[in-house]
Amino acid sequence: MKRLLAGLLAAATAMLLLATPALAHGDHDARPLARDLAAGPNTISLWQVYPDVGAAVTPHLIVMFDAGTTAPASAIVTVDVNSTSMDVRPSTTTPNGWETTEGVAEGDVVTVTISDGTQAWALDPVVVPPPPTSMLPMEELIYVSIFLTAGTAIWAAGRTSRAWRRPVIASS
Amino acid sequence: MAHTTTANDQSFMEKLNGQWHERALWVYLVIVIVHWVEHLFQAAQIWILNMPRPEALGALGYLFPWLVKSEVMHFTYALLMLGGLVLLRPGFRGAAKSWWTASLVIQAWHLVEHSLLQLQAIAGQNLFGSPVPTSIVQQFVPRPELHLLYNLAVFVPMVVAMWLHTRPDQAAVNQCTCANAPVRLEQAGAAGA
Fold it and tell me: CB of A20 within 8 Å of any CB in chain B?
């Protein structure tokens, strides 16, 4: 048992020490808009994810090359949103993806074109769906949780002060 | 023949679940409440104040945004939380122990999910073809909802366990002072506490 616990502790410590500085997109979800799209030799998927900076109120679009861990060096990615060209750059957080520098909103029509310099493949337009709604009544759940937490905090404060008034005596 | 254990003979675990249990338990609960309030604050920003998710950073997240974004921090807290549930469990008895164990099991799964996120951050490869680290249940429930629910599902049985454990009728079965009657101020002063 002690060996198992020591092993688990060592594994957890290693996971902490090995972790590279977090470059992931905060604690946000990535939402797939379209997957397994064929663009010549490439398989593409389109995702939406919030950027790390707080300025954008709509999530960015990520054009992901599904095969391999990096986007092909020769790939040129262009994105049009509602027929207007949008600035796209290699994603700093997703090595095999390109990312728009602005967000795309519900109802926007996104058209992606992939080119290798000699040939270009235009993907079918994708309409950004509405954001997913929660399955739970979140507002009510939060109010109940706040009430429960406030009650627990008051109870804990009283019991903590009681615990510190009591002398610690070794049990026999 | 009766066997008597003196304080010096006791192991760390015996002391933690005996003479130190009461103080350790309340310190632990205070830490849990502070973390839980941060999650609640962020949830209120998203679902009550309708703030954009990148701006919903909780209270401390406004001052230290990396607190929300750092997977290392979330993983470390989940690990410490599980450690507390394991270390303090032997001091519980009866129904209180069952509730505490329920909380421990849910937290163990919560840690598995955080470990998956952490491993993806280390490996640079994400599950399910996602551009960001993702966990298993996250495929069905969005992440802020999911981790709010995980923390709530750990918090509620933990509080129930503590309430059961500290009821006056438990004083006879507990090895600790958690359920003992309060010490009056003059008594505490006389004892030098």
Answer: yes
A38 Cβ under 8 Å from any chain B Cβ:
no
How many residue pairs from chains A and B have C-beta atoms closer than 8 A?
190
**C-alpha pair distances (Å), B109 with each of A93, A94, B80, B137:** 27, 27, 14, 10
Least confident of A33-42, A93-102, B2-11: B2-11
ipTM, 2 dp: 0.82
Candidates B32, B17, B23, B6; CA nearest to B155 is B32
CB contacts, 8 Å: A44 with chain B = none
* Torsional class of A58: left (φ above 0), alpha (ψ -120 to 50), beta (otherwise): beta
Quote the DSSP letter at residue B180.
S
Instruction: Annotate B52-63 with DSSP letters as a single string.
Output: -GGG--TTHHHH
Q: Determine contact: A117 vs chain B, CB below 8 A.
A: no
Backbone φ/ψ region at B128: left (φ over 0), alpha (ψ -120 to 50), beta: left
Q: Is the pLDDT of residue A21 over 50?
A: no
What is the reported pTM? 0.80
**B150: which 2 tokens?**
């995980």
Determine, for residues A166 and B36 on separate chains, whether the beta-carbon distance falls below 8 Å.
no
Rounded to 5 degrees, what are φ and ψ at A106?
A: -55, 135
Nearest chain B residue to A92, by CA:
B131
Residues of A in contact with B130 (CB under 8 A): 30, 32, 47
Which of A90, A68, A66 is CA-nearest to residue A77? A90
Question: Is beta strand A60-65 parallel, antiparallel or unpaired with respect to A76-81?
Answer: unpaired
**Domain segments of chain B as ranges:** 13-172
